[in-house]
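Changelog-adjacent note: as of this version, every example in the card shows the full chain rather than a window. The one below runs 421 residues end to end.
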Amino acid sequence: MLTNRKILLGVSGSIAIYKSLELLRRFKKANALVKVVMTPSSEKFISPLTFEGAGSLKVLNEQNEDWTTKNNHIHTALEFETFIIAPTTANTLNKLSNGIADNLLLQTALAFNKPKLLAPAMNSNMYTNPLTQASLRLLKLSGYEIIEPTTKELACGMEGIGALAPIEELFFQTARTLLKDSFWEDRVAIVTGGGTIEKIDEVRFISNFSSGKQACALATALYLRGAKVELITTKECKELPQEVELFKVESAQEMKEILEERIKVAKRGVVKKPTLVNDLTQPQLIQKKPYLFMAAAVSDYRPKYPQKGKLKKENLGEEWCLELVRNEDILKSVDKSGIVAIGFKAEMDEEKALENAKKMLEEKRLDAVCLNLVKGVTKFGSDKNQIVYISREKIVKSPIKSKLELALDITQLVKELDEHP
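Full-length structure tokens:
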């Protein structure tokens, strides 16, 4: 998804530098072009040749800067699209905040006027030091994005905040700077996912085979496009950006209650704060029409009399008639005024699938429907999918793709649904 996008990866002298190799591999797996910039102290841990062997373009360091070619800090800053420094040591961070440029990494950062991200990694006392915290605040106001460190046992043996953020989070936040779309920025997108769980008793339930993977992919894709994403789901996501707001539910009734509440909040808009030091404007209230992606597989029925504890087979006998009542159709009943609503429909009957999807579009007063046939490589739980996108203006059939790639395509298709972006 990052084919031919140009990423600068800066590394400074931290024990966490070995994780930069894994991050480089993640970027390369997404087909990005990556160039590593090293500080002299970082070479005490890993050699430039190791980064080049892992897929970096010619590494830029103190020994090979060349003004007869483009391997220098000015041309490098001009050619690349985004710059992440991971790990960022306390020394590098505090120098950056004061405009000091006494090595190639710092010089490149000062010359770079596109999106820049810092991923601090240091001892807890160094991170919480008032001087470091003041530097972080100044860097944020200057337009740097800070990928917050995590709390765990550090290399020094202490336990506390200061460990490098997870590799997937570094990847997601960097990719977001490249894939961001002004249409989605400051817009709320709500995604529902997973199969709802309707309890029979405390150990048994009615559900379905929905894995929730497409909903996780949609939430991730919308985040990468720049949206403020809320995911309401019954399933865990293997990898999900930390800034996606997660609401874990079980039953259809729980999902409906949270969904209605979140739609009301979404309609109020997004408050955007100024980020630059010289930006004296007040925070803005931005009101873009929210989007709802109803990818959840909601159970059609629930037990009429759910029981506490565990029902015993000895008390139930040889036959057991379980009385069910129909669940309310969430997508049909929810207030869709002022939002764009996209439904998802899984079908197994290939002949009637399109007809049923078009019927869903009208009966549930939706703006679009994404239809998928559950079979073969697109069966429940698979990592690939194929959809037919149906709106009142067009019908588009996608190729079979990974669910994340498909989700990124969907974020482009549905932009037509808001006439006043």
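Structural remarks: The chain has two domains: 6-177, 181-417.
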